[in-house]
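Chapter review: from sequence to fold.
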Amino acid sequence: MSDMKTCFKRVDYDLSNLLHYLDIGDVGLPDIQRPFVWSNAKVRDLFDSMYRGFPVGYFLFWENAQTNGVKQIGVGAKAHSAPSRLIVDGQQRLTSLYAVFRGKRVLDEDYRERKIEIAFCPRTGAFEVADAAIKRDPEWIPNISELWASGNSSFKMVKGFLKTLGAKAALSDDEEEHISHNLDRLFDLQKYPFTALEIAATVDEEQVADIFVRINSEGVKLNQADFLLTLLSVFWDQGRAELEQFCRRSRQPPAAGGQASPFNHFIEPDPDQMLRVSVALGFSRGRLQSVYQVLRGKDLETGQFSAEHRDAQFNVLREAQAKALDLTCWHQFLSALVGAGYRSGEMISSRNALLYAYAVYLIGRTQCRVPEHQLQKVIGRWFFFASLTGRYTSSPESVMDGDLNRLRGVNDAARFVAVLDELIGNQLTGDFWTTTLPADLNSSSARNPALFAYVAAQNRLSAPVLFSHKKVSDLLDPALKTRKKALERHHLFPRGWLKKQGEEDLKVINQMANYALLEWPENIDISDDPPQVYVPKIKARFSADEWRRMHDLHALPEGWEQMTYPDFLMARRKLMADIVRRGFETLR
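The token string follows.
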């Protein structure tokens, strides 16, 4: 006979009881989830479902036998410092309900405190996210939190609303009864029934983590990074906390004279993204699936689990994460992107390319000891290449696995550089520059990586702004804070003029080859004049050498203002591809 027993029990609650337990801190949040609340629209949908009497899911609790690494829901102190039950599944729902019913602030996805305001229309029974128009409309209760947080009875609430609404227009008896019924139904949502499955306190942390993974792998979209964060919460809660703190600080500019910060103008990373960097550095793996098993203590050769093996692997991760979160490494890497011509997050088409390039940087810096002055250009070149080619756009984990395999065992600077150059050379062939890249530039996409590479190349080549003596790189500085963008994308063949010529297809009008970066006053002055009209007027402001250099670095064919639009596009794409090549070659 098997001695295995069910490790959970079923417990029924109404919502008011659950909220009370949250108030006093008797129900808490373990670190296997982050205390983030849903979007306001999703909270609105939750209330709508409850109001209609629909089921909205169950909760999974864990009877708490220990207090290490436990978070409270909401912001502020609780009566109980050690919750007796921890939320394993359903945290987003319960946090959202708590925030609305108690009018409490919670942390959002940017680690900032905020309130959720859900509006209700008693006449129609509709819920909406509160906006300025709803707040001015007497038909709506703009923030339903006030119904419960005020402590008033349902009678007083209904009477007050009917009086306010009646002052606008007289209500019939049927209307009053209908509105009163809907308000009572809303007020009684605090009695909404929930079922919780409570895991016994005798179940250990690893089993709880496994239950969490098994439940959420059935229908809820969690990836392998979520599973790894689960393990960090159970076996290394300090590491999880360090990841979250790094990401939180990256979203907030440091105070003047304050401490060094991960804040930057390229990316606001999430914990799972920084975890990927640490895994790539520590385990030379782009795929996270097998790493989850390794961190659980599984020997991939024998298939056996052991605490010793698990502790050893967490030590590897601990060392890798310390390097990944090192602020000197972080900012030196980001300076390599600036050196490659990429000035801010607006020029980043792939976060994967940035994060994986950071992992490669760390391998070069810590494993291969590449001198920093050399590493800056090597990584700048690698990121330029990875971004331009969309290297990590399709099957990014598989591609990164292959790249890491090529770097596995490499421990000297010369070999590190040789491996990267070989990978670059295999893809950036002569045909790429003359055929593939011009074809990639045949696009109207504003987020095309080839377009960003073209602007980065202009930065590398110190290109002046078109029709200006200023540099493109200076006016793309993310530190500039202006009312209008210093540079604007301008149609060289103006949109209005092309439409007058009978061209209605926006994909043709908005071709990348028809754009150039101009200062906004110049853009306004040109208006809808065709090139043959506005170019001669502007040309008079520049010397022959200035005009020639400007046209060269903006990939403008000689006599372009007299060309037909289709011929211009074809000729300029080839010249733009050549600018990208020239800019890239300055990184050698």
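Two observations follow directly from the output. Residues 565-585 form the longest helix (21 residues). The CA atoms of residues 257 and 332 lie 20 Å apart.
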